[in-house]
Amino acid sequence: MAPGGSTCKEVIVSHPTVADYDIKAENNNSLAKTSIGLAGKHGICSNNGVNELLECPVCRSLMYPPIHQCPNGHTLCSNCKNRVHNCCPTCRYDLGNIRCLALEKVAESLELPCKYQGLGCHDIFPYYSKLNHEQHCHYRPYNCPYAGSECSVTGDIPTLVAHLKNDHKVDMHNGCTFNHRYVKSDPNEVENATWMLTVFNCFGRQFCLHFEAFQLGMALVYMAFLRFMGDDNEAKKFSYSLEVGANGRKLTWQGVPRSIRDSHRKVRDSQDGLIIQRNLALYFSGGDRQELKLRITGRIWKEE
Ligand SMILES: [Zn+2]
Ligand SMILES: [Zn+2]
Ligand SMILES: [Zn+2]
Ligand SMILES: [Zn+2]
Fold first, then answer.
1. What is the number of the ligand closest to the CA of 67?
2. Does one domain contain both 153 and 120?
3. Sign of the alpha-carbon torsion through 184, 185, 186, 192
4. Are residues 157 and 278 in the same domain?
5. Which domain of life is it from (predicted)?
6. pTM metric for this prediction
7. Which ligand is nearest to the Cα of residue 160, counting in written order?
8. Are 74 and 15 in contact (CB under 8 A)?
9. What is the pLDDT of residues 1-25, one digit of tens each?
10. Counted domains in the chain
């Protein structure tokens, strides 16, 4: 119990072998510093040095409690501990189950910049609030809003607009009104491939118009909705309307665009958009039931 003090002794490990592990080798340097830091020789004189102590020598990410160490004092994060089968990656001693309470305490006293500093966030946070902030940081990158396939691209809005245009070949339109035709030769198709994305430039901002087919309960439906390329608080400043119809009938929808922070699937599953039953969609399409041919008109405006 309470190994914090006693296990921080300096043990000379000559040329540790880092073998058998499919993980990044650590460098001895940071381990040496770990011992000094815990011995308290210099106290916390430089945030940078202490910051390094808290970097897991194996995976290089910041360590959060429980921080583990081997009997020789080599620290590692709990993720890495689970991956190394109880064998210290540095000295290959049995890891056991030793917490490094001293380092956990040191972490408590630190304040670190948000990891999105490079993207414009200049806030500084106590070590343990940093993670929580970063999950909600206004400057954190957005995920690519393209819905058709798993796309792992992230970035700020201008980056994503360029990415949609260049890599996904998405149609870009200027203007706050639209009149769009969706044609599908097989109206029975409900695979994921049955969706479309168009981007509108309007009020100097970008909006994604999604159109897709999916199974809602037992019924096949089509759905159109708008997502805003920005945060939720800004998305709320806009409204939009959608209209679809033919032969003297029409469906209309008025809504508030959802932020692309909300995944495409989340918006779809909350049914926050214009939903068109298949039968009605086919009726709007001209009635021969061989083809889906919908004309969707719409408008985006700014609320006071
Ligand atoms: Zn790690
Ligand atoms: Zn060790
Ligand atoms: Zn931040
Ligand atoms: Zn993408």
1. 1
2. no
3. negative
4. yes
5. Eukaryota
6. 0.70
7. 4
8. no
9. 444 333 333 333 333 334 334 333 3
10. 3
